[in-house]
Amino acid sequence: MESLAFYGIEDLRYEEKEKPKLENADDVIIKVKYSGICGSDLSRYKKLGPLTPGNIFGHECSGVVEETGSNVTNVKKGDRVAVCPQLKCGKCEACKAGYFAACENLLVIGAKEPGCFASYTRLPAENLLKLPDNVSFDEAALIEPSSVVLHGLFKTQLQPGKTVAVYGCGTIGLLACQWAKLFGAEKVIAIDIDEEKLSVAKELGADEVIQPDKNVSTYSKLMELTDGVDLAVEAAGSAQTSEEVFAAPKKGGEVLFLGIPYSDITLKRFYFERIVRQELTVHGSWNAVSAPFPGREFTTTLQFLKEGKLKTQPMISHCISLKEGPEIFRKITTGREKAMKVLFELDK
């Protein structure tokens, strides 16, 4: 089968791999229809390298059930499915408490286990969600990143009438803008250096946008629009925004970290004092799963896709073949091509 295998930093190869086989009675083989590039994939490709050299990369996907183990009852051959790519151990204290996001041995396919940048992938049956007829495969490939956003927002006090600032308008930030409006936020302010991404943010629900520049601070621009927001979401994963996000909330407000900076973070006194003097609540959010597994993050996303309330198409900037994978990774990480959500289309 065709695949993208990750061998080292900036070393992603399109090559033939053996089709996965059922190993456990609860296993399911999925014929992949669409798989998406996550921002974390780009960072690992450029900066960190693979956990298992030569492993099939990728963890966001949708597909069709190809084969099932003897104990599988929730899906059958031919079912259209979305995938939860997180693999919990089920044995540690966190898992026993139903706190699956804190599983001591939590894995995501595409890291140590084969991922979904391939014609086929293998997962436990409990990791699959059957798709309603009106939810397309390309929409379903974005269920996992949407669930990442919801996992964080569910920790906050976000409710109707609140104000929200979102720093960074990649896939996660754009989904955060949408979900904030779906939660009933009165005003959502999107912040990004890319004018095209800000345009998409407005299309997906942002009421105001801020494009940072060297002459006027983002904080000043934000204060022209509001006297402080109830919730500030860091979705860029940059050192700069991980500091600036503390300036956005009003007294008693909240900060939610969804982005993952791959560098050290320092806080100027002004930003640190905002945490203390504004009595901010700061949330860290990791992964997308909860109890009952895979969690309400996934089922809520699926419900809102089914009802047509969550929009994913405007975020999809590329839909390409798997063979084009190594080149698109090179282009994006070297700045030669701009992209929002890149999907690989398989089994055309």
Automatic annotation (TrEMBL):
Organism: Corticicoccus populi
Keyword Ribosomal protein attributed: no
Chain ranges of the Enoyl reductase (ER) domain: 8-344
CDD domains hit by this protein: sugar_DH
SMART domains, sorted: PKS_ER
Family: Belongs to the zinc-containing alcohol dehydrogenase family.
Name by which UniProt lists this protein: Galactitol-1-phosphate 5-dehydrogenase
Top-level division of the source organism's lineage: Bacteria
Cofactor: Zn(2+)
Keywords: Metal-binding, Oxidoreductase, Zinc
